[in-house]
UniProtKB/TrEMBL annotation:
This is Arylsulfatase. It is an enzyme of class 3 (hydrolase). It holds the Pfam family Sulfatase. The keyword Signal applies. It comes from the Bacteria. Residues 1-30 form the signal peptide. Keywords: Hydrolase, Signal. The keyword Signal applies. Residues 38-380 form the Sulfatase N-terminal domain. One of its GO terms (molecular function) is arylsulfatase activity.
């Protein structure tokens, strides 16, 4: 018979063993939770210049508290670009590049027999099975649940169809049902369903908006906040209101020369603007745009709150960007068919596990790098068709940029169109349009002239309207003999990029 002392020792050992087992189970569960595969929330807005946002332009009147918080908790990239377009609907090639991770001359058009990209028919340049290796298809195969909501049209339909759940509709109205809240509701309902069914699979959500693309019909409350009206009368100018955003610092009443795309819808037919570039029209249109932008920010906040309630926010990579920038009065232009920084560049904010908080970096990324980066961050193998570069080393603080040179194209109008190249602080833009009637060269040092001021910006009336007087060196330097060698260097660099990227066109002064 065991004595009391022996019984006590046995009981103590059993209790200790039980505690060890319980602790081990807890550690195992914690490790399993820690090892849970990360989610992705990719947010894409339609037509937004980075300079609309306070995170890029502190003097902007636009209020976006959720994006400000996202930037404070994540990283902002100051040199993020779309590569360009061979069609007036710039969003079409941009969204093809985002989905496929391929360069602008290596992607299809949304129409099968289109000649916009002459390389489309070449299977060595544009793989026939490319849709099967786009964003959703790649993550479906990796075990992710995929869902998207976005506008319809001017997109990569075959890639969009790869998402398991698709809730697409074009929503550019000023109500909850006709505007941005509709897109947020699709995401919130999807997340609620996951929550209800306790779905443990990682997710990739493509959270797209139809705004601030025109027609920029804001809600009555937000329009009032920015002093704007949904102007529809071609024969009258919109009302003046002191609450409206100020004119852009590089505003002009007209561009110095023709942009090369006759009858371009974005320059002549946008409801509320048309061909007008007067101060009243531009300030009102910016107010309409800001109303739409703030509504987008509100909807993003709703989704982030839901992710936090579900316990998923800290395990989710969040990317915020636009398919391209926008002019709206800058340089006397209205649309997205140009290669100035306000339009060639895009806003880009990233937050998630391992991404540095409250930091900025140039990046020198293209939107086509997103697929490679998503794969790198989540441990998913990128498709062999991918041509993008992962910018994970930038997000984790190991590098400041992933490439030295950036190339841009717009040739949706008359050919060969516009081309740009940037290296360091230097940027070249060339125009060869209207059958040779317009041949122009622009050279900027972006460190000294970040707004790409032209001689026209120095006119006293423009200085008075805008409230900013450019310095003497803030002009186009292409004709300045002091920069002859730099111009030749940038011209050679542009041709090198055009050749490497299989650009099928050549400008008037290029030869190989």
């Amino acid at each position: 018979m065991l004595n009391n002392s022996l019984l006590f020792r046995h009981a103590s050992r059993l209790i200790l063993l039980s505690m060890i087992i319980s602790f081990t189970a807890q550690v195992s569960m914690a490790a399993e939770k820690t090892a849970k595969r990360p989610n992705i929330l990719f947010i894409l807005v339609d037509d937004q210049s980075p300079f609309d946002l306070k995170v890029y332009n502190p003097s902007s009147k636009l209020q976006t508290p959720n994006l400000d918080k996202l930037a404070a908790e994540g990283m902002v990239l100051d040199a993020a670009y779309h590569m360009g377009a061979w069609v007036g609907a710039v969003c079409t090639p941009s969204r093809h590049m985002i989905m496929s991770g391929r360069t602008v001359w290596h992607i299809p058009d949304r129409r099968k027999n289109s000649k916009n990209n002459p390389n489309t028919a070449d299977p060595t340049r544009v793989p026939p099975d490319l849709a099967e290796n786009t964003m959703a298809a790649v993550f479906n195969r990796a075990g992710y649940d995929t869902m998207r909501t976005c506008k319809k049209g001017n997109s990569y339909n075959a890639a969009n169809a790869q998402f398991t759940v698709v809730k697409d509709a074009t929503k550019r109205g000023g109500t909850d049902e006709t505007g941005s809240p509709w897109h947020a509701r699709q995401v919130l309902e999807y997340l609620a369903q996951r929550d209800e069914t306790r779905d443990e699979d990682p997710f990739l959500i493509y959270f797209g908006f139809s705004h601030p693309h025109d027609t920029r019909d804001g809600t009555p409350e937000l329009l009032a906040k920015y002093g704007a009206t949904n102007h529809t009368d071609k024969n009258k100018l919109p009302a003046v209101n002191p609450k409206q955003p100020q004119l852009p610092v590089n505003y002009l009443p007209e561009h110095p020369f023709h942009h090369g795309h006759p009858n371009l819808r974005d320059e002549v037919a946008v409801s509320g603007v048309w061909k007008n570039r007067d101060e009243q029209t531009i300030r009102n249109e910016l107010g309409r745009e800001f109303a739409c932008n703030e509504n987008i920010d509100i909807q993003i906040g709703r989704v982030l709150k839901k992710l936090e309630e579900m316990g998923e926010l800290d395990n989710t990579y969040i990317f915020y960007t636009a398919d391209h920038g926008m002019a709206i009065g800058r340089h006397g232009l209205q649309g997205k068919q140009n290669l100035y920084e306000h339009t060639w560049r895009v806003p880009f904010i990233a937050k998630g596990p391992g991404i540095l908080a409250g930091k900025r970096a140039p990046g020198n990324i293209y939107l086509l790098d997103i697929l490679a980066t998503m794969c790198d961050l989540t441990g998913v193998a990128p498709p062999s068709s991918n041509e993008g570069l992962s910018f994970k080393p930038i997000l984790t603080g190991e590098q400041q940029t992933i490439r030295d040179v950036l190339y841009g194209v717009y040739c949706g109008g008359t050919k060969p169109g516009m081309r740009s190249v940037r290296k360091g602080d230097w940027k070249l833009i060339k125009y060869d349009v209207l059958d040779g009637k317009v041949r122009e060269t622009q050279l900027f040092n972006l460190a000294e002239n970040p707004h790409e001021f032209l001689s026209e910006h120095h006119a006293p009336q423009i200085v008075k309207q805008v409230g900013t007087k450019p310095t003497p060196k803030q002009i186009n330097l292409a004709s300045d003999p002091a920069y002859k060698e730099k111009l030749a260097e940038m011209e050679a660099l542009l041709l090198q990029q055009m050749t490497a990227l299989h650009d099928p066109h050549r400008l008037w002064n290029q030869s190989e």
